[in-house]
Predict the structure.
Amino acid sequence: MLELITAIIKPHKVDDVKDALLANGVEGVTLTEVRGFGRQRGKTENFRGSEYHIDFIPKVKLEVIVPAENAERIVAVIAEAAKTDKIGDGKIWTISIDKLLRVRTGEQGLDAV
Ligand SMILES: Nc1ncnc2c1ncn2[C@@H]1O[C@H](COP(=O)(O)OP(=O)(O)OP(=O)(O)O)[C@@H](O)[C@H]1O
Ligand SMILES: [Mg+2]
């Protein structure tokens, strides 16, 4: 019924993704500044040119709750807006959620999105 989309993206793509989400009817988004690494393990060549170290690279985590029927489309919207075609463009995953409560009104489920 409801899906939580979590997207890890490059910080400089936040505005592009936000605009794309708003243009596609999303009602709310949570942003968290995070750090992480993927397959390259955050490797960057250091100034000496020969040593490598593992780093947690700054990323942004976006969380969006949408009606399940919209989830696939919204994931595609995020991916298109976040893509630079370079390594580190991020990951997007979804899970279904059981409960959502809109605190002010007491609405639940789809009505609470
Ligand atoms: N398996 C994973 N589990 C949890 N978080 C992940 C995982 N893979 C990537 N991330 C998060 O996503 C961020 C971006 O990952 P990244 O885009 O580098 O993935 P990748 O698989 O290495 O792809 P690419 O080869 O395009 O770089 C990481 O910094 C980390 O925060
Ligand atoms: Mg990577």
Remarks:
- The first strand starts at residue 2 and ends at 9.
